[in-house]
């Protein structure tokens, strides 16, 4: 099923010609309208009007998340604010949010691309879509909402949370497609069991999941327990939100909407392209965005391309589900957490430069982060009350600085593994 | 009148306590009193021994986190109400006990109560004023 068959099945040479044309326009536009890009290009003596092939893009500098933060809030917008019709933002739990904007056309394109993904997954205008993503500054809720309306489906904008009510509505409104994170889908299955509801008695047929990494095993479990067909979709607020890529009904890799996004897979160390099919960091350049174009954005997400043609007939390249991160960022309960944040909190605590380890698990389909801290003399108290108060103090500081609750476990001195140089302090036991 | 006590951090893993005891035994250290406080995750072992410095050294060499604190040892008659009398006096003086444990002397005549107070100096003054006998470290080891 195609939403825009002609575009989704464009012969490769035509697609590349379209990409080049749009890339030239985008580069010229940012060079004239965004001082950040203008300065960067002139520093490196790059002429945005002289780009003759897609390969020429490789001469242009990368855009990093840090650049977005430094230009907070509107510094990278390419159109006047009066022409911006929507603003979204990343979660900004560390106080460093990034802000993105959309023109009227951007919203039209966004809705259209999400409609493509819904349609590719098998959803039609006859479906009833329950959107259990948070609505608000997060792009997931509104992104899927507008796309589903564009498709002509019936939308239930229920937002995230209140699982029993979600299930009640699913029963009463005869929801056929569920949109949420994959772990929330499993949580729903658990709650259904508690409520004595058999998922086979529901009208549910499709699940469109995103916003967190997941595995093939988890897909199987969701499919089996909810009696649906689960598909993966990918997006990020810096680029647009959902709609960047999504799985077709083959459920074997995510088709990138290449007429709107030019992607590169680069070695995160050398920043050179990897060989076809090899794992590398996904770098995206927007080709049609008006309000917030981004040139060579380093997503830090690791994936690889699946170069073989897809039986569905789409010519858009497929990428493997996300395989990890090129930095050490963890996504816990949807919140970005860097081990260095935890490290600096621990180092800030008087009396210690502790050794620590982070254990990430998924329990009852919820992420759980445990910080293991070695007890050294400076943080050891002979009174139990003081030792417990110490643990609570760490927990409180972590909660307020990370934005999520963590467990803190004290362990004996010299029991955590030592590293020479850069240590891998994270043990991620989530089965992805 | 203070008695030195060492405390050891313990994860709740089987065999750890035995390991400590072996280390102390090998170093020829005699334990006069001990208590273990524990929660689900970890425990704190408190010890009064005949050679504090040596015990500390061998345990630290064995990889344990060891703290040293001073406590009070109050001697009471080993009879009904012995502990109650002391606690009543402590309560009256408005002193806050951080923790306590007790052991009975070999002779069976006296019991020794080990206290850790938030305000140790006030506690010493108050207990002595009320006529309680405070033992020194040497006295405990000699018992």
Structural account:
The complex is a heterodimer of chains A (432) and B (143). Chain A has 432 residues and is α/β, with parallel strands linked by helices. Chain A has two domains: 1-328, Rossmann fold (3-Layer(aba) Sandwich), CATH 3.40.50; 330-428, GMP Synthetase, Chain A, domain 3, CATH 3.30.300. Helix content of chain A is 31%, strand content 23%. In chain A, the strands form five sheets. In chain A, strands 4-3-5-6-7-8-9-14-13 form a nine-stranded mixed sheet. In chain A, α10 (339-348) crosses α11 (384-402). The relative contact order of chain A is 0.11. Chain B has two domains: 2-70, 2-Layer Sandwich (VC0802-like), CATH 3.30.2130; 71-142, Alpha-Beta Plaits, CATH 3.30.70.260. In chain B, 34% of the residues lie in helices and 40% in strands. Chain B has helices spanning 16-26, 52-61, 82-92, 120-129, 137-142, and strands spanning 2-11, 31-38, 42-49, 66-77, 97-104, 110-117, 133-135. In chain B, a hairpin with a 3-residue loop joins β2 (31-38) and β3. The longest helix of chain B has 11 residues, at 16-26.
